[in-house]
Amino acid sequence: MLNQFRQSKRKTLALVAGAFLAVTPLASYAQEDVQKGLEIATRSDVTDNGFGDSTATAQMVLRNAAGQSSSRELVIMTLERNSSKVGDKTISLFSTPADIKGTAVLSHAKITGNDDQWIYLPALKRVKRISSSNKSGPFVGSEFAYEDITAQEVGKFDYRWIKSEKCGGATCEVIERTPNYAKSGYSRQLVWISTKTWQPEQIQFFDRAGNHVKTLTYSGYKQYGKFWRAGKLTMVNLRNGKSTDLIFTDWKFSTGLSDRDFKSSALEDLR
Amino acid sequence: MFKRTILLSALLSGTAAQAEPPEFSGYIGGELNYFPEAGLYPGQLSDTQASLVFAPELRWRSDDGDTRARISAFGRWDAEDPERSHIDLREAWIQRNFDSFEVLVGVNKVFWGVTESLNLVDIVNQVDQLEYTDSNARLGQPMVALSTDQDWGSLSAYIMTGFRKREYPGTDGRLRFGLPVDDSATTWGDDREEWAPDFALRYYNTFGSIDLGLSAFYGTSREAMLTPNSGGTALDPYYGRIWQTGVDAQYTGDNVLWKLEAIARGSDDFDTFAAVVTGFEYTFYQVGGSDGDLGVISEYLYDDRGADAPGTVFQNDLFVGTRWAANDSQDTSALVGAVIDLEDGTTSLRAEYERRLDIGVLLKIQAQAVRNTDTSNPLYGFRQDNYLSVAFEKFF
């Protein structure tokens, strides 16, 4: 009986491995580059483990090609979840412009499948569950797509190490990552990760046709305890000349946020 | 919880948590409505209706963050219809957060529901019928509410009194019945009249891709039974006592949202009836290579109430509509929809457009028309009340 079970289990494993090899395009890449890419991504992720929860105020400045700008201000709350199946929970609470004050977006990230997402509309006092499958759509009119601002869990991408090179005053590992979730607007991304902070310095985004369409630059890194946070993110859209800055202030960690604060029914109590 | 609120207060006000002043916000607005056709009834305003809106709001939070209070008022001054000039206290409450539950005392607005064309389950607040350009406008309802958020879902219980009668446009107004409603002739199903207590219970939870709400209500009907008086000069409202149970559910898929609201309502005054709104919203993301999303919405509306219950126009109707969101920095959006009566073909059409013109300044344009009205349909009386509305709102 036991033997039979062992045998069938072995067979299943062999089948799974066979299927994996048959479908994975990464098989053509050097296995050590794939391995190294994943190691760097994992190291970057692990460096950030244990922050518990955080809050920050963000100013979002949207600029068009003519240089005209408009801005939005929001508070971003994050609850870390240590699991390989689910990602972090986040709330983005808008305080300006005044007509959307109190609007909040709640997201429960998942590694595979769509994140669970709700929006609270204060004028209607209504919570609406929304679909998060529109990954490539713009987040509140900015140059950030939804997939650029949601939790960047390791399991959401396949990786490959490209090269090491100087970046600013430090050395960066350049890795390529390919989204393995459905409906991404990107064929691949190139990520520069500093070996000093193990945080990203720059990400280049390539559309489905393989064109380099956007560049995201991280600057003004500061260390809070053991955690690094960028003071400013700048996303430049190379196609339309528009750009969006996200300027962070007031980073706070371990503020006592809990699961209960990240329920859809709690959204109307935020302010 | 405790820490969070202090921190949030500090973040939102940009100051230290101590001695936090109340936060004042709100909007002022102007609305101009144009009716191309003459009114059906004597005294109705001829073609334009101008009005001004003031909606201030005051929010307060205690230093420890556990107590919150809010006062929110809405006032409209209408140049043509004195009955439409009205002030309402939308919210005036104080809420205390204990560890495992919350208590709210005062006037509040509560929304229940998921569908787009009609929210059958949404019964706590009286409809502000004078705000015909905003189908979501509700009158504030005095209540004591107890809520708890647990792993098994959230549960809220409400005890209400101080019933809010529905207000109707005056003889000068448009979108009114042929006869004016005589508020002073109101009769009640309960001797305690507007002070009869109402009770409500709501459960809500998320199960994977499904959001589910269950609700129950016992109290005074928000809908009035309108009967012509003996002289045939006015309609007399009657508010009976009813019970209602409701379910609302949404399944969230990739591009599609499936929605359902259903109720059963009973009373000593009429035979128990059921009503359903169910349908879907399918969204095409980034249509034609733009940033915009286009949603197609369709909902079926059914209601089997008899003539002994307050009337409805949604007995066997189909709603079809499309929603466009530009996803631009001005949050431009538009909605076009039609409700078609599947029995007599009467169709009501509505189009809405909204865009931020400047920081905190919104432009809202809206048009409504009824077409193909059957003489037996209640909308027949509104067939001359098609309108175009332009409104500006400045938020502060």
Description:
The complex is a heterodimer of chains A (271) and B (396). Chain A has 271 residues and is α+β, with helices and mostly antiparallel strands. Chain A has a single domain (32-265), classed as outer membrane lipoprotein receptor (LolB), chain A (Clam). Chain A has helices spanning 2-23, 31-47, 146-149, and strands at residues 53-63, 69-79, 86-96, 104-110, 116-121, 126-130, 157-167, 170-179, 186-194, 200-207, 212-219, 222-224, 227-229, 232-237, 243-253. Chain A has a 13-stranded antiparallel β-sheet with strand order 6-5-4-3-2-1-15-14-11-10-9-8-7. In chain A, a hairpin with a 5-residue loop joins strand 4 (104-110) and strand 5 (116-121). Chain A is globular, with a radius of gyration of 20 Å. The termini of chain A are far apart. Chain B is mainly β and 396 residues long. In chain B, the strands form two sheets. Chain B has an 18-stranded antiparallel β-barrel. A three-stranded mixed β-sheet of chain B has the order 8-12-11, with no helix packed on it. Mean pLDDT of chain B is 93; it is low at 1-19. Chain B is built from one helix and 21 strands. In chain B, strand 13 (241-252) and strand 14 (256-267) form a beta hairpin. The radius of gyration of chain B is 22 Å and the shape is globular. Chain B has one domain: Porin, CATH 2.40.160. At the A-B interface, strand 1 and strand 6 of A face helix 1 and strand 1 of B.
